[in-house]
Amino acid sequence: MLPLAHNVAQGLPTVLVLASGKGARFTASGGVGHKLQADLAGKTVLERTLDAVRASGLPWHLEDAGHPGMGDSIAAAVRATPQAAGWLVLPADLPLIAAQTLRELAQAAPEAEVLVPEVAGQRGHPVRFARSCGAALAALQGAAGAASVVAAVQARQQLRRWPVLDAGCVTDIDTLADLERARALFEHPFAQISVDHKSESK
């Protein structure tokens, strides 16, 4: 990974890996333990996500302290990275995300205040925020994540949607069935991928 100062000078955002959630839906669906510690082809879900983040070469921050909601997690992560040139907000339960996709989203449409990846028309993650969003992000609270910031930027017509081919942007692990699906995709990455609507809520 390049030094943070180099990435700031290049205008490259910091990846915020959000790993503070309790994963209640996973255990309710029959999963054992926390979903981020579940096995995915010999590594945990979290390790798979971090592998892609490290391979991207982008600066990153892991936010794994306990927080009451995703908004609180984002706020804490932004406050912990005050020198960042911007932020890519990545939930840690996206273990199939590709490093190349992270690099693409970091550099695409630099004029956009918010950049939202889409896979076959479905909104995914990570969402990129410009440094100008920092104060609003740092003030977030609750379970709605950064939805209020995204809505405000969209109202100013400064939001850009960016199509990607990486199904890892929308393959999140919320339930045991999601984990089994991710395992199948990991073993057969070129199989046809059925994209659902779950990630719209994050």
Quick structural gist:
Helices cover 34% and strands 18% of the residues. It has 202 residues and is α/β, with parallel strands linked by helices. The chain has one domain: Alpha-Beta Complex (Spore Coat Polysaccharide Biosynthesis Protein SpsA, Chain A), CATH 3.90.550.
| Total number of domains | 1
CATH topology: Spore Coat Polysaccharide Biosynthesis Protein SpsA, Chain A
The tally of helices reads 8
Helix and strand run:
HEHEEHEHEHEEEHHEH
Question: pLDDT under 50 segments (min length 5)?
Answer: 1-7, 191-202
Mind telling me the C-alpha Rg?
16 Å
Distance between the termini: 28 Å
Assign the CATH superfamily. Answer: Spore Coat Polysaccharide Biosynthesis Protein SpsA, Chain A
Regarding quaternary structure, what we see is single chain
Describe the structure.
With 202 residues, the chain is of the alpha/beta class. The protein has one domain: Spore Coat Polysaccharide Biosynthesis Protein SpsA, Chain A (Alpha-Beta Complex). Helix content is 34%, strand content 18%. It contains eight helices and nine strands. The strands form two sheets. Strands 1, 4, 5, 6, 7, 8 and 9 form a seven-stranded mixed β-sheet that branches. Strands 2-3 form a two-stranded antiparallel sheet. A hairpin with a 2-residue loop joins strand 6 (114-119) and strand 7. The longest helix has 12 residues, at 45-56. The chain is globular. Residues 1-7 and 191-202 have low confidence and may be disordered.
